[in-house]
Structure formats: structure tokens, C-alpha cells
Amino acid sequence: MKKNVFSILKSVTLLVVITYSNQGALYAQNQDCKVLLPEISAAYTGKCKNGLAHGKGKAWGTDSYEGRFKNGLPHGFGIYTWANGDKYEGNFYNGQMDGKGIFKGKINGKDSIYTGFWQKGVLHHKILPPKYQIINARNVQRYTITKTGSENRILIAFTQNGTTNNLVTNLQIVCDTGSPFKLGEKSGFENILFPVNCKITYQTPNALRTVWYDVTFEFIINEAGEWAINLFN
User: Fold this and answer.
1) Which of 84, 118, 150, 178 is the most buried (most CB within 10 A)?
2) pTM of the predicted structure, to 2 decimals
């Protein structure tokens, strides 16, 4: 019995030594693996080829990068983060932003997000976001979203059988900016900073008044202005 216990402990010790040795070899290999972009050349972990970062890896220095490498440079998909917190997530070619990507950071002191196509490190073509996006439309027969003016607010109307739906109950409207207000029979949010994400929930019967539904309508509006939203049940 003692001999068996000794054999087990010896095997576990040997496994630990082998694991530690392998990790040490990997660390040593990464220490010998160079990244050719000075801003991220202080340290590297990942795959190597001929002494250069090649394949998936992570490098850092004054800036940091995680993604694909080729011949010591970011190449393929990756995430590059500058020392000031600005970030680019997208494609690289020979160490430069090249291809489709998203930049998140400050432009002229303002938080900005640019989605577009880069060429040799320069934004070549910006992709404009849609004016609005529907996230969820549960138990809504149909809807309309129309820009009607320049005031930064949203007005919401509820319609059924061609007239105002006065049977809406348990209405909740939540937006991530702005403040709630009412204008006649319409509810909404004003003083909004765009883009804005809103979620509307309520209960209403169907047109025949035979069944009640739980309704959810969630959306994002990216373009500033006054927007009229009409929900039909």
C-alpha cells in the first residue's frame, strides 16, 4: 500500500515538473519571438515562426494588440488599443489598419464610433449606421417610424381599428437618455441624446376584444430629430 502511494506521488511530481518545463519552454520561445511594431514590441505571447510573431498572439508596449500576426506584424483580424484608450477592432495588413473595422475613441474631444473601410491606416470609406433599428417587435401587428422635425424627442401613438387605442394598460416606456413627457394622447421622451435605445411594454386586447396580449417594442434611433412612432394592434 505504501509503495502504491509512493508511486502515485512520484507520478504526480513528474507531471508537475513536465508541465512547468513545458510552460518555461513556451515562455522562453515567446521571449525570443519578435514583434516589429515598436509600440507593441515590449512583450509578446503567442505563436511564432522564424523568430517572429506569426499566428494568433498578444503583444503590448505603450499600446496593446491581440489577434493575428504575420512576419512580426499585425495581419488579419485583431483588436488594437492605444495608450489613451482608443480602440480599433477589425482587419490589418502588414501592421496597418486595412479592410473593414470599427474605431471607438475620441475625435476632437468627443466620443466617436466609426465603422468603415480602412486603407493603409487611413479611413477610406465610412459606413453610416441606419437611421433606426428594430430590436424586438412582439405582438405588434405593424408599426411606422417617421422623422417629423428637428426637436430631439420621440412621440409614441397607439392605434387600433383606425382610431386611438384607449385600452392600452400597464404602459412602460424606458429610454437610455431623455425624460418622459406627454403631448395629448401621445407619450414620449424629450431632450434626447442620440443614438437612443428605447423599450416599450404594455398590454392590449386584439381588434376583436377577445384576447389580451403582452406587447414589447424595442428599438434604436441613431439620427437626431423628432420621431413619430405609431404602434398598431
Assistant:
1) 118
2) 0.56
